[in-house]
Amino acid sequence: MMALAMITFAVQAQPFLLRSTSGAKPFLMNIYYADGGKGAYVKYRGQQGILPLRLKKRTAQGKTSTLNVAYVWDEVVEGKVTGVYTLSQIGDQIAAASYLRNKDQKLFKLEQVKNEEDGSGKAGFLLHGVIISFSQGMDEMLSFSYPDKTVKTAHLPGFDSPDPQRRGTIADYNFDGYDDVAFSIPDAGMGVYRTFTIYLYNPVSKRFDLLAEPNDPRAKCSGFCDVTLDKKNKLLLTACRGGASWWNNVYQYTSSKDLTWVSSKRANN
């Protein structure tokens, strides 16, 4: 059985503030996106509303510490592609960025500038038409702004770690074909693994619902720890340290969509 690990990027610098360096009338925009380029959108300074971005391509080169990730997104307005954004990111810095406007094929070069107006550490994703906003730092507030103008709020777990860094991940956690969203923080002990809070998207209600943590005494980890997905076998995997040993736990969904424990075993060191 092979687990397919999900790449999570700390979004500590988001939203990135970009400024045009070409054209007669310079403009500023904030760009938001989750791991792997999913959930992306832009918001122009001085304008209302947002513009959804649809991921076309993602490439990555280099080692983890100097990983260069390049993205290409389509700008989509009322179902039509109106432009293309390209962006190259190294760590929390934008190495290069540009916007190609479709109507006249005009290319605007963009550069990262210091975001003086957003010192809150707020990150945002756009998923299934829902704007998801959360703090990367100590603020525990999470909000879902739905297309019908309804806003639902919740509290994420607080930190008990010397490295308070909250990450957001978009993935299909229940294998129903719809992406969901998760938030992770360092564990409250030695910070050797991350604990996850997962919200599943319900395509019928068009709402996000909290996935209840498994509560089975046979499991060696309580809650969601270092979550990965085995997409082929539709299994949710967790891993944690208990005493002097590392443990792997396997869960699967029943026909009634309940998450149940399958097995636990000691990890090979």
Describe the structure.
- The chain is an all-beta fold.
- The chain folds into two domains: 16-113; 122-266, no CATH class.
- It contains no helices and 20 strands.
- The strands form four sheets. The protein has an eight-stranded antiparallel β-barrel with strand order 1-2-3-4-5-6-7-8. A four-stranded antiparallel sheet has the order 9-10-11-12, with no helix packed on it. A four-stranded antiparallel sheet has the order 13-14-15-16, with no helix packed on it.
- The relative contact order is 0.13.
Task: Summarize the model shown.
With 269 residues, the chain is mostly beta strands.
What features would you highlight for this structure?
four-stranded antiparallel beta sheet; 269 residues; eight-stranded antiparallel beta barrel; mainly beta; 2 domains; single chain; 20 strands; disordered N terminus
Give the helix/strand layout.
Layout: E1 16-20, E2 28-32, E3 41-44, E4 51-61, E5 68-77, E6 80-90, E7 93-101, E8 106-113, E9 122-127, E10 130-135, E11 141-145, E12 151-155, E13 167-171, E14 180-186, E15 194-202, E16 207-210, E17 228-230, E18 235-242, E19 245-253, E20 259-266
Antiparallel strand pairs: 1-2, 1-8, 2-3, 3-4, 4-5, 5-6, 6-7, 7-8, 9-10, 10-11, 11-12, 13-14, 14-15, 15-16, 17-18, 18-19, 19-20
